[in-house]
Each structure stands twice: as structure tokens, then as C-alpha cells.
Amino acid sequence: MASDVRCGLSSLLWGAGLVILVMVFAVIEVPSDVSRRGLQLRRDWISLTEVEGYVINGVNATNIRAFLRHLTLHPHLGGTEGEWQTAHWVADTWRQQGMDEVHLVPYEVLLSYPSTSMPNKVRLLDGSAREVWASAIKQKPLYAPEEFDPDLPFTFNGYAAAGNVTGPVVYAHYGGSKDFAFLAEAGVNVSGSIVLARYGKAFRANIAKMAEDQGARGLLLFSDPSDYAPEGPDFVYPHSYFMPPSAAPFGTTKLVDGDPLTPFYPAVESAFRIPEEEAAIPKIPIQPIGYNDAYQLLRELGGAKAPQRWQGGLNITYHLGPGFRESDWTVNLEVNNRNTMTTTYNVIGVLQGREEPDRYVMLGNHLDAWLFGSLDPSSGTAAMMELSRVFLQLYNETGWRPRRSLVFCGWGAEEYGLVGSTEWVEQFSTQLSNRVVAYLNVDMAIEGNYTLRTKAAPLLTEAIYESSKKIPNPDPEEVLAGRTTVYDTWAHRRPDPHEPHLPRMQSIGSGSDYKTLQHNLGVPCLDFRYTHDNILPFSLDVYADYISKAQLAIEEKYGQLLSSQNICLEFFTEAGVNFKKAITSFKKVINGLDRNNHVITAPSKTDAYGATAFAGLVDTLFAIEEASENDKKDLWRIFAHHLAAVTHLLNTAAKVLSDDLW
Fold first, then answer.
1. Which pLDDT tens digit goes with each residue over 483-524?
2. Is 414 noted as a catalytic residue in this protein?
3. Among 29, 414, 415, 426, the one annotated catalytic
4. What region holds the Peptidase M28 domain (predicted)?
């Protein structure tokens, strides 16, 4: 049995490395003459097919396992000694592998930590303010010896405000805007209460902001077993990957990415820093708890019965509150977090390109973790380290170099809100906006073994499809079923809901280190053009169809609302048609690329993890539906302004493709 498990894990780790190859082969190219006659190196000739075969066959699951084991030996929270040691190990490993350049890039940033002597607590108090029950201060060790590590932090949420508050509890389902609206309609007053919300449908920072805006004194977050332990309490970690009762949803509660004291500018030594009280961080105490602790609160909660869709996986009936069945009972929330200036490090390794060394294909992942980070992020980092080893071994043995430079990135303090990657992009935005071809993020190489899950800018769709057809299927049962490639299983097990003959490609939102490159700089969807050169295989037709479908969705959902304000989408729609025509004409001349401006794909304002096509339009229309009559006038002006801007940018993109000034 143990041997079978080890073999299965090795296959899974090997597959994780191959998943990264799907993305790398989508954008990497060997020098141009390889495709015509091969490239003379230290040995005879090496073709593109040989390069692909070498890399595919060179990925070794045993190496990935060893990398992963090293990365998960100790806690490595952002900005701590553990993260510093991890960054140095990655840098030293890349130097040993033979990278042309390796850089450690420091940033002085404001991060958040729990007290080492006074843990955060949630207490249930009776009418005499006596403690009836108190929450756990750490997650319960269940399996591995390292779970007893004394350096593991007390349970906390990053940037949650320090404070000690007492009040009634209100259950707010997933803490979304519609959930708070339902509570208001039901006559449940959130102001002055401590909100208890389930984590899993929206980014916790969005939940925190909504609770704070509603006047809540504090916020408690838990992961309901219906979402995170659906097979029941006996099939959780360490018997499966499902969440055990004592596990709490660590994470940041800061809504703005990067260092909160240096907005829009890099957190270098010379940076101007705003006062901490002006920073965009929560002003209320927030604490995550396990669902066994949430049970203790929910079973005592009073008020009206929550609607059926709000019921969860705990063996009780969920009520809304406020308050408890014992009318004089309250909850006390004590948070002793401290915000601290500290240093986080990015590690950047470069394998220079042969023909276009100043053009970069970036591959990256973050180095920090809330605890040990075996899946998030180290499964991705371990696979990335093995991939860099194989590419550099190929170079050392044959002299082969990619056409464009490969830039490997290890980001610092991502868990706190994409801190390291955001600061790096802010520091080098001019160079990056002109030189980066694409960025490939590998936050988690594996979170299961069912099929591939991909989020991408529309321009990369076809390239990823074609690359995944080259990658051997790591699942032997799927191979026996005739599905011999990663693409085959992806298309079979995760079909697109609208085009079921294709695999599902999700839109890219936020939540990991691609955010600032994708949505701030436009990588990989730059208004970027190669002249008299090899052209990257971006999916122009797919992108145009994506735009057309998104336009149609807005018209179908909000057409009546727009008509009520005499707002016409004619020019907006015509701009999309012009863009489609320009692509058709452009492809007759050359197979090329286009600009994907961030006004088309962007994170949703109500859930930063999610992506929304034409987010500026859709989010504003959503706000209009929810707004009071007094606020609607300003919102309609914002919508009209943004509609004009998007229309202009679509027409501009069409002109860029056509080479026609007029």
C-alpha cells in the first residue's frame, strides 16, 4: 500500500512538472533558424522537436520530491528568517544549476504578524462576562512531526487590526454584498456586531471591507465543512486533503496589492512612506477560526433561522442572530497582531536568449507560506526548480539557448497581498512593459490529480491548447482509455461549458503574482509588435470572440437598464466588430499578436480573486442596481465615461493591427 502511494505521488509530481511545460512551450521558441534547418551547437544539430523531447524526458519526479521536501522543512512566513533562508537556497540552487544571472532583490515593507506571547482569541461570555468557551490559538497537530514546530505562528489573518471588542454575533453567510443586503432586508442590524462569515466564495479582504463598511465591530471567518470537508469528518487530513475541523483559513485581509505604505511606488530604501493610519488596511479586528470553533458559536446563535441556502455542513440549524439564545451572552474578540517594517526578498534568475536576449518569457512563483506551504506554493516552486535544472542542463550539454531570455522568479511575501511581485513591477515597470512577452505563474502545481485547470488571458488560449497536446499524460488509467496527452484528459474531464469539444479555459482574475503584470502592465497582452521577425502564437480569433461574447452578455443582461437612461451601445459594439475585422485583415498579411488592454480582463471589485470581462462596465452596472437613487446619477456618469474609454481603446487596438492611420 505504501509503495503504491509513493509510486502514485511520484507520477503526480512528474505530472506537475509537465503541467509547467504546457505553459512554457506555449510561449518559448528556439532561435529562428532551428525551424528551418536546425541550430549547430556543440554537437551536430538540435531541432525544436528534440528540445521538447529533451525537456519532457528530463523532468524527474524524484528531483521534484527532493526540492519539495527541502522547501517544506520549516515555516517560512513572509519577511521572516524562514523566508530569507528559502530565498537564499533558491538563489544558491540556481547558481549551481548555471544561471547566467541570479539576483536577490530586497524591499522594505509593512507586514503583519501575531503576537508571540498573547495569542488571538474568541471567547463566548455569559451575562456576567464569564468565559463560557474560548477558541483554539493554533491548529491542532495531526500527523507530521513538523506540525509541532514551536516557530509556527498563532492563528491570525494578515493586517487584521489589533483590538479587543465585544458584541452580539451576526451570521452573514459568505459575506458578499448580496448577503449583507439580505440581512438588511431581514431587519438584522450588522452595525455594532461581530460578523461570522464563511470563507470560500469571495476574497476575505472583500468580506472584511464589506463588514467594516456595514459598521461591524469585528469579523470572524471560518471554512464550512460543506465546502471544505464534503465527505464528512472521517475523510479529512491526514486521511485526505480535505480540511480538518481545527484548520483555520489563514490569509491577508488587505485589499490593495503590494506594500501598503508605498502605493504605486516601489518600497526601496529611498521611498516616501505614508503614515500607517492612512494605509488601506482594515480598521477592525479579524480572526479566522476552525469549523469546530464556529460550531460552538453557531449552535448557541439566536435570531431568525437562516434560509436554506445559507445552511452549512455542521450538524445544527444555522441562525442569523444578532445575539444568542441566551439573550445576555456576547462574544469577545481579542486580536493582538502587530504591523512591522521588515525586509522581503525576490529571487530572479536569468537564462539569456540567443537572438532576443532583451525579450523575456517569465516563469515564477512565490516563496513564502503561512505555514509549511506544501501545496501553496511549494509544489509549484519544486516543479519550477526542476524545470530550470533541465533547461540549464540542456544548455550545459549542448550550448542550446532559447530565442528569448527565460526569467525565473521567486517572489517574496505574496501571501500578504502580492507584495514582492508588485514592488518589483512598480520598480521596473518601464522595462517590463516593453520587454516581457508573457509571464507564467505556478502558484500551485497540484491541488488534486483529476485534470488540468488553467486561467489565462484570451491571447494565450490556442498556444496552451497546442502545447498541452504535446505533453504525455501522467495518468496511466487515462492512457489506457486512449487519452494519451494532457490535452485529452483536460478536454474530457473539464470541457468548456459553451464549447464542450474544447477544454475549459478560465479567465484570469487576481489572487496571485500574475496580477500586476496582467492587469497593470498588460502582460502578456501588450500592444506589442514584432517587425520582420518570428511572431508569437497568440489567439487573436479567440480574443475577438471573447470580446464579442462579453459585449453580448452586457447587452442581454443590462440592455433594458441601459435603455432606461438612453445609453446606446452602438459605438461600443461597432468597435468590437472593427476589432474583429482588423484581425481578419491582419491574419491575411501575417500571423501575429494584439494588445489585450486591461480594461477588458480585470479582477472583479466584489471579489478580487475573480475575473470579469469589461469589469469597469459590469461592476458599475452591478453597483447601479444596488445603489440608492441619490447615488445612481454619479454612477451613470462613471459608466458613460468608461464606456467611451473602452470603445476608444478597442478602436485603437484595431488600428494598431491594420497599419492604417485613418
1. 999 899 999 999 999 999 999 988 777 778 888 998 888 886
2. yes
3. 414
4. 346-528
